[in-house]
Amino acid sequence: MSRRVTIDPNKPWFIYDTAGDWFGTKLGNYIFDPRGDYIAFVMGENYDVYTTSGEWIGSLYHDGR
User: How many Å from the N-terminal Cα to the C-terminal Cα in the chain?
Assistant: First the structure.
């Protein structure tokens, strides 16, 4: 049974790659890289992630990946 992800939109959500390196930060529905550049946005109940040009690239998991 999978656990439902709940991300508080009022707090930063840190995103890591599988190796554990910090990839970016989600603020509201936007994702910024470590330099602070806007790189993606998040939509929907499954936290689907899209590039700034609208291409789907994956979903956020409860562990920040």
Answer: 19
Strand partners, 49: 42, 58
Q: What are phi and psi of 25, to 5 degrees?
A: -135, 135
Query: For 9-27, how does the pLDDT look when each residue is reduced to its tens digit (9 = 90+)?
Result: 789 999 988 888 999 999 9
Please state the pTM of the whole predicted model: 0.82
**Where do we find the tokens 């009022």?**
10
Look up residue 48 and give its two tokens: 């689907």
Relative to beta strand 38-43, strand 30-32 is: antiparallel
Alpha-carbon span 45 to 35, nearest angstrom = 27
Residues 6+ positions from 6 with CB-CB distance below 8 Å: none
Nearest to 56 by CA among 40, 32, 35, 37: 40
